[in-house]
């Protein structure tokens, strides 16, 4: 069953350096998705294999859950249901896509991850933070990001940007300004609690400036 080629291939896989896992976080309208694409191009130019993902989503099951979560037909959704759907989509993405990719040396860039649940459902919706911590732990296991880029900007600036975008009118975009303020504050708390993992980016600066700043962060952290 295990011929010479098979053994050689397993040895090669074992020797592969694990990829890096970078997450992009921030309130809606913070510009994180634009930056994710720019940074993916930069890393590919450095010869890295890169996988771009978004949450909720990234798997067939996750995209179905995303449709339920964002549908304006689901205004009756309870906050507990919402919490568990985000966690369910994440659990699937970690096992089906992120873990295998990292093990294969791929760099995984994810638009939102576990910190979104703490910031939005924990601080925004005010669900118990310890409960969210436990749920996040079940969803991600040991698969925590190596680096989290937090795109920080005022709620006013973010809503001005969102108003100019026609694609932003799903169920979760109908939340109040107070909700967005609590969520932003939640991100600040997370960044303070884990300063080694988080880098806070001033998202009011130009796209080019921010891209340069992120490239510097990557060079400092990984030498690429
Ligand atoms: P997106 O607009 O960045 O694609 O994110 C979809 C929405 O889902 C956004 O309003 C943030 C929200 N969200 C949560 O509330 N909790 C979560 O855990 C995640 C991943 C997203």
Annotate the secondary structure layout:
Elements (H helix, E strand, L loop, with lengths): L3 H12 L5 E5 L6 H14 L4 E5 L5 H11 L8 H25 L3 E5 L2 H11 L4 H12 L6 E6 L2 H9 L13 H17 L4 E5 L4 H16 L2
Parallel strand pairs: 1-3, 1-4, 2-3, 4-5
Helix pairs in contact: 2-9, 3-4, 4-6, 5-6, 5-8
Largest sheet composition: 5 strands, parallel
Broad CATH class = Alpha Beta
Separation, N- and C-terminal Cα atoms = 40 Å
Listing every helix as H and every strand as E from the N terminus to the C terminus, the arrangement reads: HEHEHHEHHEHHEH
**Any low-confidence stretches, pLDDT <50, length ≥5?**
none
Number of helices: 9
Strand order of the main beta sheet, please?
2-3-1-4-5
Determine the CATH superfamily. Answer: P-loop containing nucleotide triphosphate hydrolases
CATH architecture: 3-Layer(aba) Sandwich
Q: How much strand content do the residues show?
A: 5-15%
How would the global form be characterised? globular
Number of domains: 1
Distinct small-molecule ligands in the complex: thymidine-5'-phosphate
Radius of gyration: 18 Å
The proportion of residues forming helix, as a percent range, comes to 55-70%
CATH level-3 fold name: Rossmann fold
Q: For the residues shown, what is the average pLDDT?
A: 91
Assign the structural class, choosing from mainly alpha, mainly beta, alpha/beta, alpha+beta, or little secondary structure. alpha/beta
What is the number of E strands?
5
Description:
There is one protein chain. This protein has helices spanning 4-15, 32-45, 60-70, 79-103, 114-124, 129-140, 155-163, 177-193, 207-222; strands spanning 21-25, 50-54, 107-111, 147-152, 198-202. The protein is α/β, with parallel strands linked by helices and 224 residues long. The chain has a single domain, classed as Rossmann fold. Helix 2 packs across helix 9 and helix 5 (114-124) runs antiparallel to helix 6. The longest helix has 25 residues, at 79-103. Thymidine-5'-phosphate binds next to helix 5.
